[in-house]
Structures are given as C-alpha cells and as structure tokens.
C-alpha cells in the first residue's frame, strides 16, 4: 500500500494534535494507543477518565503518551462554552445551553479544533454521521473556497490482480444524496484537492455517468456535463473528463477509442459519482468484490479537518483515519 504508507510516513515526520471524541469506546482506545506508539499524532481522548483507564487496562493498551480529558470536568469547559455561545447566539444559543452542550464530547472536540487546541478531530464510531457533520459545520465552519461539505473514500488498490494500482479517490459516497450540477462541481473540485494533498499526485478527474461524450441523452447526463463545464471554468488546468463511463475513466485502451481529446487518458485517480446511490454502490462493489481497501468516509470542505468514522469501523480503520487527518492538517497549514 504505497499511497497509504506515504501518508503514514508524512504523518510521522510532522505529527499534529488530533482529538478523538469517543474515548470510552474500546476501538478508539486501541487506536489511540497504536497511533501514539507509532508517533503519527499527539492524541487526546475525551470521556470519563476512570472509565477510559479501566478499559485501557482491560485491553492492555498503554495510554501514557495520550492525554485523557473529561469534558464534564475540564478546566477549558468555561472558555469553550463562552466561545460556543458567541458563535451561535444569533441562532438562538444561550449561555446555559452552550455550557450544557460543551459537556458533550462531540461538541467539545470540534471546539478544540476551532480554537486551535487540536489540529483535527476524528468522530463517528458512536455518533451518527449527521451529528458529526452538523457539529463540524456549526463549530469549525466551511473552508473559504468551499460552499458545502462532502466526503470521499480513499480506495487502496494494491493486490497483485489489480490492474489499476495505488490510491484512488471515490466521491461522494457517503454524504450528499443528489447533488445538482453546481454541487457536483464543488464535490469534484474538493476531491481533486484531496487527491493532490493525500496522494501527492496531480489529480485526474473522471465525472462518471452512464454516458461517454454524449452517447446517451438524459437530464442525468446533462447534469454531469454541466458540472464538468463548471469545473473547467474555475480550474482550467485540471485534467478532467466528463461525461464518461467507468471503463473509459480507468482503462487507457477504452479511453483512446471512446473519449476524443481525453485529458485523463483512462488514468483517472479521482472518480466523481453522479449521486450518493451510485457512489455508495460503487465503493462497496470495489471493496467487497474488487477487494479494494476502503478508508473513510473522509470529510472535505471544512475550514479544518474533522473526520467521520463508520460505526462499524475497526481500531485499524481509526488509525488510518487519524493518519489522513494529520496529513490534511499539514496540507491546510502549508
């Protein structure tokens, strides 16, 4: 897994502070101990300190290099609550409500990121995606060049039988259900930046459809064509093809036959799906039948990194997302 190994190498060379909201979950405890031991991040676990210590002991996990903080008893809770009140008072937030919300590890974690006490957050092993994303948008906020939050999976194709090798970005497979052309264009631009930051490669974007170069006529195809034009207008130097079918996006011989003036030449490393239905099915087919490793969902479009986990994640999945979050934080600073 060269692409993933490179991410871990970069994280280890310049670690960042990452906060994990669900510190009482055994998977999170194990992941924090592993990530700290590997030196890829400075970790903070949130939760009841006695509960976390007992579970760590039971699991045989060494948390000596990890900070454990209970939001309910934190010395920073008052400062964070005041920040939350000032941030959200125009939306009806009261000081009492802010003081109560900041005791919730999810809100506490995102406030740590907002004020710079952490460089990124990883949540979602227990919290829902909706709760995780909502708190991130409300507290951390959107990136200046982004109009929406979307997600991607980093798909690792590293088996001997994989003809397409390395890391490929699949977006959006976890968040935006039915994007319009403008939203699809934003997803593509965010995903291209994610590819540049994580893969250390120039992005080659394929705007996927059931049509290639207008071979089919339908409003769903029109949306992809319009989104592609919007991306080209804003990022004229980006290599992008659309509308394009999957085979023409990743097989050079087919692209040569089917896509006149192709910019990716059948070597796309960013696949943009027209809607969540296609994206979710696509990444799971690649994972379950194609035996690709799926890392994510990773959020994009936020001012600072705040990543979601699948509630079915393993400790190893969490470690992978921690490493990606560190590299995202590095990229934002640079």
Word description of this protein:
The chain is of the alpha/beta class and 334 residues long. The two termini are 25 Å apart. The protein is built from 13 helices and eleven strands. β7, α9 and β8 (239-244) form a beta-alpha-beta unit. 47% of the residues lie in helices and 17% in strands. α1 (2-13) packs across α13 (315-333) and α6 runs parallel beside α7. The relative contact order is 0.16. It has helices spanning 2-13, 26-38, 49-59, 77-88, 95-101, 105-115, 129-140, 181-199, 219-234, 246-250, 252-258, 276-288, 315-333, and strands at 16-20, 41-46, 67-69, 120-123, 150-157, 166-171, 204-208, 239-244, 270-272, 293-300, 306-308. The strands form two sheets. It has a six-stranded mixed sheet, with helices on both faces. A five-stranded parallel sheet has the order 3-2-1-4-11, sandwiched between helices. The protein is globular. The model has no long low-confidence stretch (mean pLDDT 92).
């Amino acid at each position: 897994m060269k692409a993933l190994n490179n991410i871990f190498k970069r994280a280890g060379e310049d670690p960042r502070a990452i906060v994990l909201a669900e510190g009482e979950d055994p998977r999170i405890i194990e992941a924090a101990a592993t990530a700290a031991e590997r030196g890829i991040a400075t970790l903070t676990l949130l939760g009841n300190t006695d509960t976390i210590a007992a579970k760590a002991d039971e699991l045989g996990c060494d948390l000596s290099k990890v900070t454990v903080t209970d939001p309910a008893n934190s010395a920073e809770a008052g400062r964070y609550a005041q920040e939350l009140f000032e941030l959200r008072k125009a939306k009806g937030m009261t000081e009492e409500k802010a003081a109560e919300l900041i005791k919730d590890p999810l809100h506490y974690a995102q406030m740590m990121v907002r004020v710079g006490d952490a460089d990124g957050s990883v949540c979602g092993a227990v919290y829902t995606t909706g709760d995780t994303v909502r708190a991130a948008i409300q507290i951390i906020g959107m990136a200046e060049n982004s109009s929406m939050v979307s997600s991607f999976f980093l798909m690792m194709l590293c088996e001997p039988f994989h003809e397409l090798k390395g890391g490929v970005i699949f977006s959006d497979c976890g968040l935006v259900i039915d994007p319009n052309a403008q939203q699809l264009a934003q997803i593509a631009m965010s995903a291209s930046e994610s590819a540049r930051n994580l893969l250390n490669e120039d992005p080659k974007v394929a705007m996927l459809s059931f049509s290639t170069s207008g071979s089919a006529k339908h409003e769903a195809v029109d949306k992809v064509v319009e989104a592609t034009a919007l991306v080209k207008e804003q990022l004229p130097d980006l290599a992008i093809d659309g509308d394009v079918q999957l085979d023409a996006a990743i097989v050079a011989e087919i692209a040569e036959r089917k896509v006149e003036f192709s910019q990716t030449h059948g070597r796309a490393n960013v696949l943009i799906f027209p809607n969540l239905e296609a994206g979710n099915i696509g990444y799971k087919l690649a994972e379950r039948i194609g035996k690709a490793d799926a890392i994510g969902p990773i959020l994009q479009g936020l001012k600072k990194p705040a990543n979601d986990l699948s509630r079915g994640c393993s400790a190893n999945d969490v470690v992978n997302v921690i490493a990606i979050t560190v590299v995202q934080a590095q990229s934002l600073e640079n």
